Amino acid sequence: xxxxxxxxxxxxxxxxxxxxxxxxxxxxxxxxxxxxxxxxxxxxxxxxxxxxxxxxxxxxxxxxxxxxxxxxxxxxxxxxxxxxxxxxxxxxxxxxxxxxxxxxxxxxxxxxxxxxxxxxxxxxxxxxxxxxxxxxxxxxxxxxxxxxxxxxxxxxxxxxxxxxxxxxxxxxxxxxxxxxxxxxxxxxxxxxxxxxxxxxxxxxxxxxxxxxxxxxxxxxxxxxxxxxxxxxxxxxxxxxxxxxxxxxxxxxxxxxxxxxxxxxxxxxxxxxxxxxxxxxxxxxxxxxxxxxxxxxxxxxxxxxxxxxxxxxxxxxxxxxxxxxxxxxxx
Length: 330
Fold this sequence. Notes:
- The protein is α+β, with helices and mostly antiparallel strands.
- The chain has three domains: 2-66, no CATH class; 105-211; 228-328, TATA-Binding Protein (2-Layer Sandwich).
- It is 61% helix and 14% strand.
- The chain has eight helices and nine strands.
- The protein is elongated.
């Protein structure tokens, strides 16, 4: 009886070993099902195809890992984060290109200041032309109005053609004022851009050849200002900054939060042309440091596009980093 039991056990072990070798020779997979049970099989059933699984070789070692399929929400978050990373990289690359042009265009600060003066003179000349045109049409309107008044005093009817001419001249005056305001804004913008370029040129050429060493003038800082970025110094500060980001969205967004994870706080899509939907994403930079990105969405319409390109939105982006820093100081 004892000998027979040993034989059965021996053949059973041999059978299991042969079966195991045969299975592994095919290609085995290992995964954990929805009940927390580890499953081994040479085929993955459709209902488990979305789960994380490991491919094993004939020795039972892991040779490949297939990660769990992402949900639509997870994929949307990843897509958003990747878009923000690309936006930052684009701004940094553009700033580096601008630096190269700046250094190759001007020999020294005197060149830049002379160029600024010439630009201002040119813009002043354009504004003078617009002001002269305004004066001309104002005189024209005055002549037309006097003619109409004289006809009325003489008891005569004002011709429709004269009334039309007066309306056209009034419209020309409004257009002339708009052109003058446009020229003033153009000059102010050009002056601000030139002065920023002068400061950048000073930084690049006077005592520091590595722009990344100066946080206020580095390409990273310029990117941060343009797209709304806060770089976390520590994990603890990042946790506090994340909480402050919630408050920023609540304070400035016009749509409520509808996605709130450990990596993304996102407002509901804008429903009207005046809506601002804010989101903040948490990603890692190339040094594994956490960064918080502010993203602003507007409705997909002409007015929505205009809103997202407005000074209001640019100022909101620029306000994100100072807001977070001020909250951390409390």
